[in-house]
User: Fold this.
Amino acid sequence: MKIGIIQTAPNNCAALDKIATKYPGVEIVHYVDGCVWEHFEANGEQVNDKVQEILVADFNKLIDAGCERLGLLCNQIKPGIEKVQEKVALPIIVYDDVLAERAVAVTPDGGKIAAAAMNTAAPGAAKLAVEAAAKRAGKQIQVDAVCLEAAKNCLAETGSTELADQYMERWLRENREGYSAFILPQVPLTRMMPKLRDMETPVFDSMEPFIDELVK
Assistant:
């Protein structure tokens, strides 16, 4: 099975390929299109008709290449994906929608979910995805979009992902009783998952559930 994934930068390709090895017969076709991001930034970080036009062309190229599943690994260019979907024959799966659905599924009505990251953009977009998933599920769920400033500043000042991850892990563990689930919408934070598998509060990272959903 060929899975086509559109990204705006190549830095996550190797990690995705490693995850895909768990699924025999699965091949990822990476489509890294920096033009999408260039147009997005030039338009004030807003998705316009040009961005959608490029996405339509990119997804259809993946279909032409024999891909049977399509994914988008960037939630900032997700707005308006419904219009893109109208011109693409296969369903498009966006990674943070998968996280949202899974977190909502394990969260009781009246529960609380945190979308946590080391940047400001990813949690806000993921919060909207969780709110939409909760509405579809008929649940009242509180969603906190959390940018962990300590981790963000540590990474900016030291360049050490190891140190920054320690701040993130500490926050997750200290706040585990306050939430029914955590989602980590910042894609590279998948690297933290081996350290978090013992937590009783479910933690959903960006890449593993995404690939799992695409393989289904």
